[in-house]
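Would you mind writing out a protein's amino acid sequence and the numbers that encode its backbone to help me picture the idea?
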Amino acid sequence: MEQFFEKVAQVNDAVNGVVWVKIGLFLLIGAGIVMTVCNRFFQVSHLGHWWKETIGSLFGKGSASRLKTDRKSISQFQALCTALAATIGTGNIAGVSAAIVIGGPGAVFWMWVAAFLGMMTNYSENVLGIFYRRRNRDGEWSGGAMYYLADGLGSRKGMKWPGRILAVLFAVFAILASFGIGNMGQINKITLNLQSAFFKDETVLGTVSGIPVIHLVIGVVLMIVAALIIIGGLQRIAAFAERVVPFMSVLYVIGALVICIMNYRNIGAMFVAIFRFAFGVKAVAGGAAGVAISQVITQGCKRGVFSNEAGLGSSVMVHSSSNVKEPVRQGMWGIFEVFFDTFVVCTMTAIVVLSSGHIDLQTGFVKEGIQDATLVAQVFGEAFGYVGEVFVALAMLLFAFTTVLGWSQYGTKAFEYLFGTKATLIYKIVFVLMIISGAVMTSSLAWDISDTFNGLMMIPNLIGVVALFPVVSRITHNYVQRVIQNKKIDPMLSYDPEIEKEMAAAIALENAAVVSAETAE
């Protein structure tokens, strides 16, 4: 078994180096810049509008963002919660601490840069996802990079087959990624943190072929619970996410803020270290070689993408199932998704780690004996005692487990694209069984495999996003003119004339209902 995992690690390292260092990062940052510039810095220039239309809309009377219009779709808020369920996972806790341990404090800065650009990448993915979505044989919405690659890029002259090939590659990589970032990587961190908090001696129940039995027990329990939810489909996943995601996110942020206040003396030095190490090398200490800026950027961007998934084309598969009619409205939820995931949750984790004293802010090196997998739990334990360790273990359980549920839907949609709606049950069964592998696999290997699958999935998606930037730009400009500037022009809602007619009629009815309600008042 050990020889098998060593061989997998060797192959994965070779692929990872090409996908991320030589291709992925340039494409990721480049796509973010293109989409930001072409859409006139929408995340900043229309900040008030997208804030009001997303999180701000939830507090309005009879919020449309929370309403479901039919049984075949989910509400806009449920789509956000399901997407956040898939993005707020181990990347927000263990992933951020790993980026800091490996790349130094400067990795946090590049995580922010990737997120700022990623807001518009995610926006563009969702706009394209809604614009090119279609209904499957069960009447449910199906959208994602597969569809805008095949029907968007593929509609260009001479691009029919390249578009279809890229769509198939994306679907295959999405399925593989769902087993990595969406399954094994998450389950592995849950197992390690539960074992660290509740079973200090991992051999308490003995071992089987060198694998602690407690890891197998945790894996089996998680597999059973996941099966009960995943087999129920998107409606059950969305209902679970809508209840759990807001609760767990707010609770974690409050806990992190308490630690920040306790370590307030280190806050200033922490921000200095973040910016200083972002543009230089980690200082040489104890004869160790410094970390080059390329590694700092790589770690920051990789962990940022691992966390918020902007550029992967993953969350668009859930956003496309929303009952929204306007592509831009769901795109704005994508902006908020990246903002909350990285600038709020990930930043809280970074402050907790960097203000804890376990990272030397002068040299940027982690202090001896610190493990990135359990660093956040250790800091919480030092602040709140055993309760703190238990809190992080439970937070990791909720964060990571909801990620597993969200990614099961991504993989299901990719599998549906390749093999049809009826075949998705096969995928769900295999996905659930793979949970055991995550529980027994070594932490570093599970994490590295997730990185590689992320990169492979990202490449065809970003090719499609960049190639279709004129479409996104036109849709955005159309929305700004109609909704913000109140100009009387026809909307751009779908590539399919029949769907566009259906959506336009629905919007007209909604507008008429609003006018009628205002008149009645």
